[in-house]
Amino acid sequence: MTKDMAAELFVDLAEPGDVAAIAAIDSVAWSSGRGTDADEKEFLTRQANGGIFVTKTGEGRVVGYVSVFRPSWADPKALREIMTQCTDRIVGQTPEERWETLRNTYGLPLNWHEATGNGTPFTEKGLHNPGGKVIFGMAIITDPNYRGNRVVDETLSAALRASKQEGTEWFIAFSRLPSYRNFTQTNGETPVDRYLRAAVPSPEGMVPHDYGFRFHWRGGAQPVRTESGRIGYVGVRNVRYDDPESHNSGVFIMNPLEFGRFPFEKIVSQAGI
């Protein structure tokens, strides 16, 4: 893909005619080959409910998509409290203990499977709230032939801006960590919290090491902050049961749609979680 081709990308809500291409991309995008637990019927359901944004080339080829819904379990006030008033006691726990505490305190789901009804939120009774102020990112997928060209950044940014114009206040997700396994193979066993502080230099400054986490950071994902000044992103174990690249782990993305990047240098240099 050339820079000229990248400049021709455009993002819009998916149409029924896009679904076959979406399903085809989904089937090859994951190394496990399992996709996101959705078939063409489910993608049609998502499309009919306005739950898919697609990125296309100037020639009309679908090269990426973002799939979202409005979870009934998500409370904007609770998300703000987690982000700005999380306690040192909570963040000091192991990832398993911490997520259990957050779940019990704020009514959050156990993992991606529970959050989405195994990828069927529009048919699983009670999961989707059409009037909700929070959207949840179920899947953010790029055609493998177009990776490395900011397709995900373009798709996610457009989806977030369109959602904010509709009155959405938050974007949340369980982001995969697709570079995690390779990192541990090179650097040895690394707890997920420590991995979320790993950074690499770039023209943007220090950025997250994990490319899956990185595009959420670029989109405005914010860390939690405690009363003592600790900051960090919330790692979650066993987010998915079929993601060996991520060691089945992820990061809980909280984006208040203020479109400001948190300086990742602070994550690297200050006391974390």
What can you see in these coordinates?
It is a single chain. This protein has 273 residues and is of the alpha+beta class. The chain folds into 2 domains: 109 residues, Gcn5-related N-acetyltransferase (GNAT) (Aminopeptidase, 3-Layer(aba) Sandwich), CATH 3.40.630.30; 139 residues, no CATH class. It contains 12 helices and 11 strands. The strands form 3 sheets. It has a 7-stranded mixed β-sheet, sandwiched between helices. Strand 6 and strand 7 form a beta hairpin. Helix 2 packs across helix 3 and helix 8 runs parallel beside helix 11. It is globular, with a radius of gyration of 18 Å. The N terminus is likely disordered.
- Straight-line distance between termini: 39 Å
The main β sheet shows up as: 7 strands, mixed
- Total helical segments: 12
Principal-axes geometry comes out as globular
List the helices and strands and how they pair.
Layout: H1 3-7, E1 10-13, H2 19-29, H3 40-48, E2 52-56, E3 62-69, H4 76-85, H5 88-91, H6 95-106, H7 112-116, E4 134-142, H8 151-165, E5 170-176, H9 180-187, H10 192-195, E6 199-202, E7 205-208, H11 211-219, E8 224-225, E9 231-232, E10 234-236, E11 250-255, H12 264-269
Parallel strand pairs: 4-5
Antiparallel strand pairs: 1-2, 2-3, 3-4, 5-11, 6-7, 8-9, 10-11
